[in-house]
Amino acid sequence: MIKTESFRLAFIADIHLYSSFLGVSGRAYELRSGSDQKCLAESGAVTDAAFDAIKKSGSNAAVIVGDLTNDGEKCSHAEIMQKLEALNESVPVYAVTSTHDWCSDGNARRYAGSEVFTDVETASKDELNSLYGGFGKANEISSFKTTAGFLSRSFRLSNGIRLILVNDDCDGVGGKSGYSDAHLKWVENEAREGAANGEFVIAAEHHLVLPCISRLVNSSQLISDGNEVAGRLADAGVRLLFVGHSHMLRATDFVSQNGSRLTQINLSALCGYPAGITYVTVKDGSAEIKTEYIEKFTYNGKEHGADFFRTHAENIVMHVLDGAKKSRGELSDRLHALGIKAQISDRSYGFIKKGVSFLTNVTVGKAAHTVNALMPFGGRIDIKALSGIKNDRLMKYVMPVFLSVFDGSRALDGCPDEVRGVLVTLANKISAYLRALPVGSAKRAKTGRLAADISQTLKELAHPRFTLDTEVFFNDT
Fold first, then answer.
1. Full-model pTM
2. Helix, strand, or coil (residue 473)
3. What is the mean pLDDT of each run of 10 residues along the chain (477 residues)?
4. Which of 21, 164, 218, 388 is the most buried (most CB within 10 A)?
5. How far apart are the first and last CA of the chain?
6. Under a CB-based contact definition with an 8 Å cutoff, are residues 313 and 273 in contact?
7. Which phi and psi angles does 234 have, rounded to 5°?
8. Is there a contact between 4 and 283 (Cβ–Cβ < 8 Å)?
9. Contact 91, 58 (CB under 8 A)
């Protein structure tokens, strides 16, 4: 391994810059914004704050890992390009695009009053290659054009670091995100060459190679053949793999059959809670990783703090609950905004309204009694052990658990330890309940997998394998 001076990289993903020309007011926009973790109207201001922080951070490079725009709108690309070019004057920029940058679902929208319009002009694949291909050109040592027409690129950032930016869009099995065989071989060759030269090899792509919480949560966010890809990247010499897409701040270790270690770092979304920038300092074959957060930004002349991101994320849930209390029509609108097209009858709405009322008012102790009565499997929740919180409303702790999905357990740090204990007990109870169901042999394996996935999910939320809030070291051994 080459002995090197420290070199600091700033990693961000999922900027999702949304141009204000697309509409930032009215019922249609409010429904869209209120159903999403992304702070759309404020995305430009948040990006400005992040880029200012990177300029002051002592970083030697800034790496953008996909979804620079909300839905590939040309007006949004024009705005993010202007900001990136300004950042590039102070800190060299390296960027790879992803599905939202060319609007892969063909559903770019603008909003006016209660109307949604789909006549927005979006960037083509060739335009993206041209727009972002200039960043880092002086340090580019190789590139590969994928079956989908995108460019993956390899850079030598210093005499001891190699960065491989992979565009995995539509290049995997069945057109999923991933790698064609030729593409994967190119990445392997670049990594092996870097490792043979004693370089610390870092790769980045937008989609997940490995589940960061569980397959139950992350299955739709994974590339095809993720385990095989992870093994081949690790054996080729990739030590750190940065990904975006999930908007979940996590880290996942993987060891290949040959004993090679790869660590996948899931970046948070810049455009929403917890709005993190992950810094990586490489020196002498070791990497120090730490995430810092946007503490304030200014939008329309008003300064907002970090609580803005938290409240916006909480509203994904609260808007639905409040909608259920208000009317059947409001609940339907909120669910449709989330992509849930369920038809709600008057009768079912009555049941839903009562259920929501129970959930928002029930105490921790009453909820625990209810769970114990309905699910007498896998051990009982110890009510006595909850004495310090049993009279608190359950929602006080539901929200931190929800937020911890995105922030890697940061939101749970201020909660009593009993909350984590309840999550573990629930994991055991649900798993035992599912395994006890009287299903046939054909369904038993499927039920068993679901039980294992639910258990893994709740236990990971309660006790993450490790978080990126504090400094974490990775040695190249």
1. 0.95
2. strand
3. 83 98 97 95 98 97 97 98 98 97 91 96 94 96 96 93 97 92 97 95 97 94 95 97 96 95 96 97 92 97 97 96 95 93 90 95 94 82 89 95 94 91 90 83 84 92 81 68
4. 164
5. 10
6. yes
7. -60, -45
8. yes
9. no
